[in-house]
Amino acid sequence: MKETILLRVNAEDPELEKIKIAAGVIRRGGLVAFPTETVYGLGADALNPEAVKGIFAAKMRPLDNPIIVHVADKEDAYKLALDVPESARKLMDAFWPGPLTLVLKASDIVPKVTTGGLDTVAIRMPRHKVALALIMESRRPIAAPSANLAGRPSPTLAEHVIRDLYGRIDVILDAGPTNIGVESTVLDLTSSPPQILRPGGVTLEDLKKILVEVVVHPAAAAKSEVHVEHARSPGMKHKHYAPKAEMIIVEGELNSVIKKVKELAEHYVRAGRKVGILATEESMCKYDLGIVKSMGSRRDLASVARNLFKLIRELDDERVDIIIAEGVPPKGLGLAIMNRLRRAAGYNIVEGR
């Protein structure tokens, strides 16, 4: 068991001496959990194969699941990628720093362990002062998947990282809650047309303002499991975001969803099971059974995204047997929310009628 150092850092004005401690760990091949605007990441030197292997070991992550490389300067993309097309430059100018990951052909300096054995590399520039300070002070691109045990809900608080990885990594930088709450959008620019492999904080609609054509990979919008032979992005192939409890997603028109959630809750309560309900502000007053939590407002899906993983973990902490979650329309940020909910539930989806 490792000795894990916990450092509380100011999110807006990171203390340099604390950043230096964490950066030194990165340069020596160690593991540092740090906040981004999306979720907390578990970082290592992206160009050090042994360090990256440490990420897989700490998370118990399958080796064929590629890791996103985080940079603090757009120019670093030109070193990590064999070819950076004009479309990539336009997207970097529009969305970096921010929650957009670009998949490009990898240059020879990127180890295969970082790319999950693929000939492509996933790169992004995070929009968080602590993350950017750590990358710059480390003087290394940082490979960083979410800082949780593989398959668990992603961490949006340092407390979540502590629960999953304390004693398994070297440093945790605690800068409070993350802002977006779901991971970055992953866009594959090696396919024609460019393809969203994982929806996230930059929406399909946002991307279409820059690119002539963008498509969504079938696995990213699927309501049932889609077989993926070689995952070109994290979040495509293996179990992700899952609570310990069984989970059901109810989709459809809101009144029908409410009716079906109440019906399911009554059924499981009668069966002696402890029920948790993930509702929205507009509907939570409709439920009088189980532990009811509001994800946020349907008129503000950013609030739903921000709270989603935290509330799934809270219901696990309250030892519910089953979580029944309302779906939201899969448009805009709703596509990312539904991607996470469907995968968390193992595609256990019921239509509200």
Task: Give your account of this protein's structure.
It is built from twelve helices and 16 strands. The protein has 353 residues and is α/β, with parallel strands linked by helices. A hairpin with a 4-residue loop joins strand 2 (32-35) and strand 3 (40-45). It is globular and about 55 Å long. The chain starts with a strand and ends with a strand.
Topology of helices and strands:
Blueprint: E1 5-8, H1 16-27, E2 32-35, E3 40-45, H2 49-59, E4 69-70, H3 76-80, H4 86-95, E5 100-105, H5 112-115, E6 120-124, H6 129-138, E7 142-143, H7 158-165, E8 171-174, E9 185-188, E10 195-198, H8 204-207, E11 215-216, H9 218-221, E12 246-251, H10 254-270, E13 275-279, E14 291-294, H11 301-317, E15 322-326, H12 333-344, E16 349-351
Structure at a glance:
With 353 residues, the chain is an alpha/beta fold. The protein is built from 12 helices and 16 strands.
